[in-house]
Specification:
Blueprint lengths: L1 H4 L5 E5 L3 H12 L5 H11 L12 E5 L2 H13 L6 E5 L8 H11 L4 E6 L6 H8 L5 E5 L4 H55 L6 H17 L4 H10 L12 H4 L7 H17 L6 H12 L20 H15 L11 H11 L6 H9 L1 H10 L9 H9 L2
Parallel strand pairs: 1-2, 1-3, 3-4, 4-5
Helix pairs in contact: 4-5, 7-17, 8-9, 8-13, 8-16, 9-12, 11-12, 12-13, 13-14
Bound molecules: fe (ii) ion (2 copies).
One fe (ii) ion (FE2) binds next to loops.
Amino acid sequence: MYDSDFSPNRRILVVDDNHTIHQDFRRILMSECGSDDLNLAADAFFGQKSVVKACMTDEIDDAFQGVEALEMVTASVREGRPYDMAFVDMHMPPGWNGLQTIEQLWQGDPCLQVVICTAHSDYSWQEILQRLGRNDRWLVLKKPFEAIEAEQITAALTEKRRLLLQRERQTHCLEKRVSLQTSDIRRAHEETVHRLVAASMFRDKETGEHIWRVGLMSAIVAQALGWNTTDTECIRMAAMMHDVGKIGVPDAILQKAAPLNAAERKVIETHTVIGGDLLSNSDSPMLEMAHRIALYHHERWDGTGYPTGLSGLDIPEAARIVAVVDVFDALTHDRVYRPALSIASAIEFIQGGSGSHFDPHIVTLFLASLSEIEAVQWKHPDCSVSGTFPAMMEMAGSC
Ligand SMILES: [Fe+2]
Ligand SMILES: [Fe+2]
C-alpha cells in the first residue's frame, strides 16, 4: 500500500527553536532515494548509520516558536491547504513549550497530527496524556532518534491523512449522488401528482390556482401546527389532490351552473369516496396522506359531515386542515353560481364554523397565519388561462 499509493506532495510543519533541527528534518524527509549526501548528513546528525529510502515530502515549513506555528497552521486552514502533520519540539524558550504549542495548534486545526520530539520533558508522560488525551492525533519521537524513525512516522501519518481525505471525498461524492437521485425521484413524484390533478381538472370547474393555493395554504397551517419539514412538504402536495375524486362524478352535476338539488348533492358527495379509493393502499406517505385528505376533507368537527360522519380528533388532522383552507379559498373566489365573498366575510364564516364545522384549534392557527394566507392568494390569483393543463405543469415546474 505504501509503495504504490504514496504521494510525496504532503505539507509538514517543523516547530523547533533550533535552526539545525529544521535543516536535519529537511534533509531526511526531502532527499531523493539513494542520495549519498543525504545519508552522510543524516549519519552525522543522528550519530549512526541511517536508512533513507524515499523523498517523504516536497513541502516542509519552519516555525521557531509556538505563536509563529499557530499563525501558520491557522493560515493553512484558511487557505484550504492544511498541514498533514507537525513535528513539535518540547523545549522552545522563551515562548510556549511543546505541550502548550500543541494545545494551541489544535485550536487552529483540530485535525492536525503532531509528533512530540523530546529528549526529556518538564512533564511526566502521565501529565502529557492527561493534557492531550488518549487519541490518535499525537505520537512521540524520543531524541536521539534514527532517520528511519522519523521517516516511518511521516510515512504512516501522511498516509493516514491521505486515506482520511480520500474517504471524505468518497462520502461527499456519495452524498451528492444520493441527493441528486432523491431530487429526481421527488420531481417525478410531484409531476405525477400534477398530472393526476390536471386530469381531474379537465372536467371540474375548479381552477388550477385553487388547487395550488389549497396546497400552499395547508402547508402554512401545518407549519403553524408544528409539523416537521417533511410532513409539511407532504401536505403541500397531498392537499392538491383533495378533489381528485370529482373525476368520477357525471358532467351534468359537476358542471351545473346552479345550486345542486339534494339528489345531485348526494352524487357529488361521492367524490370523497372515489378520491379515497383512487389514492388508497399506497406505500408512499404522501399518497397515504392524500388518501386521508380526499376521503375526509368534508367531515365536520361536530360529526355532521360526510362521507362517514367522523367527528373531532377522529378526523385525520391533515383533512381538518384542508377543510378550513378549502372552504376559505372557495368563498374568496368567484364560482359560476356565485361571486366571491370579501376576505372579511370569509373570515366571519370560518370563525362562525369554529367548533361546529371546523377544528377550533386549526381555525385559531389559520387566522393567526392570515398574512401568509393572503400572500398566497395575491401571488396565485384566478385567471382564465392558468387552469389549463399546460399552465398547471408550468406552475409545477416553477416550484
Ligand atoms: Fe371536495
Ligand atoms: Fe377544493
